[in-house]
Structures are given as C-alpha cells and as structure tokens.
Amino acid sequence: MSNMIHTLDESSEALLRVGQDAQRRVARFWDGFANFALRDNVLEVAVGLIVAAAFTKVVTSFVKDIIMPVISLLPFINHNLEEKFSVLKPGPNISEGYNTVAQALNDGAVVLAWG
Fold first, then answer.
1. Burial class (CB in 10 A: 0-12, 13-18, 19+), 87
2. Exposed (0-12), middle (13-18) or buried (19+): which is 105, by Cβ within 10 Å?
3. Is the same domain home to 88 and 112?
4. Residues of the chain with pLDDT under 50
5. What is the pLDDT of residue 41?
6. Domain boundaries, position 52
7. Radius of gyration of the chain (CA)
8. Tell me, what's the pLDDT at 90?
9. CA-to-CA distance for 115 and 113, rounded, in angstroms?
10. Distance, CA of 109 to CA of 111 (rounded, Å)
C-alpha cells in the first residue's frame, strides 16, 4: 500500500513539473511576441499599410471622378468610357452580343473592362 501512495506522489510531482514547464514556455512565447509586436519596424509597417490603403482610395476617386469626366469631353473619345469592354470568352447564353458589361457578367462571360 505504501508503494502505491509513493507512486501517486511521484505522479503528482511529475504533473506539477510538466505544468510549470508549460507555463514557463507560454510566458516566454508571449514575451517574445510582445517584443516583436512592439518594435518600431512593425508599427511603421502597420502605419504604412493604413496610409497606402487611404492613398489608393484617394487616387481611385480622383481618377474616376475628376480625370475620366474631363477625358470623356474630348471630341474624339466616346462619351461612355465606363462601358468599354472586350469579351474574352462569351457566356453560355449569348445570342447577338452584349450591350453592357453588367449584361456580359450576368451571362457568365469573361470580360476585360478597359473603360
């Protein structure tokens, strides 16, 4: 009986050691991650990505709302530039062609919209 109690005590101690080791490893991992995340370079990259996303939206809006309307006023350019597209692969229900990009996309055509 005393041998069984002795074995239980050793098992408990082994489990306690494993738990403490796991706790130390998690703490070390968390400290390493915190050091990495709080470095200047990571913060600079995050700020750069936010600025790039905002800049992309500004440039897209500028081209779409300011530049393209002015270009469409030129006499040798068709006024409906947004509907300029080429069909690379027609859809299954094509009869005589597509009048709009939306019509082609709804039919399942592969479209290169260049307008």
1. middle
2. middle
3. yes
4. none
5. 75
6. 40-77
7. 32
8. 85
9. 6
10. 6
Cβ within 8 Å of residue 115, ≥6 positions away = 80, 81, 82, 83, 84, 85
Instruction: Write down how long the chain is.
Output: 115
Angle (nearest 5°) at CA 61 between 59 and 65: 125
Query: Residue 8's pLDDT is what?
Result: 59
Structure tokens at 5: 């109690």
What tokens does 58 get?
């500004």
Check: CB of residue 111 under 8 Å from CB of residue 105: yes
Total domain count for the chain? 3
DSSP per-residue string spanning 34-73: HHHHTSHHHHHHHHHHHHHHHHHHHHHHHIIIIIHHHHHT
Amino acid identity, residue 45? V
